[in-house]
């Protein structure tokens, strides 16, 4: 693992979609999310996750890293992120939980 600055942020969101599991709409949302969000310059190490535990009510996850708070802020304000949230997230996501971490040292 590479050295990370004290400003490093791990941004993750777990979510369930309104679409049926395994549907074409689900696949398209996950692929489009990855394609669109990874095109934002400050996003690093973007990952798409699928839930495997029956103890969790969410089906999917997106996680990404930012080198600094400024990079994270730039991502949140980036036109592609704003557009994805307004056009896709708000209409296709049923529920979600967003978690943002930095190292505790």
From TrEMBL:
It comes from the Bacteria. SMART domains: Dabb. InterPro entries: Dabb, Dimeric_a/b-barrel, HS1/DABB1-like. Residues 9-101 form the Stress-response A/B barrel domain. PROSITE patterns: S_R_A_B_BARREL. Homodimer. This is Dabb family protein.
């Amino acid at each position: 693992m590479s050295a990370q600055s004290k400003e490093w942020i791990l941004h993750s969101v777990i979510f369930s979609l309104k679409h049926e599991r395994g549907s074409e709409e689900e696949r398209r949302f996950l692929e489009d999310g990855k394609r669109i969000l990874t095109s934002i310059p400050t996003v690093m190490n973007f990952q798409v996750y699928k839930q495997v535990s029956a103890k969790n009510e969410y089906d999917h996850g997106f996680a990404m890293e930012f080198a600094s708070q400024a990079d994270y802020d730039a991502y949140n304000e980036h036109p592609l992120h704003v557009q994805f949230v307004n056009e896709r997230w708000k209409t296709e996501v049923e529920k979600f939980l967003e978690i943002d971490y930095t190292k505790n040292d």
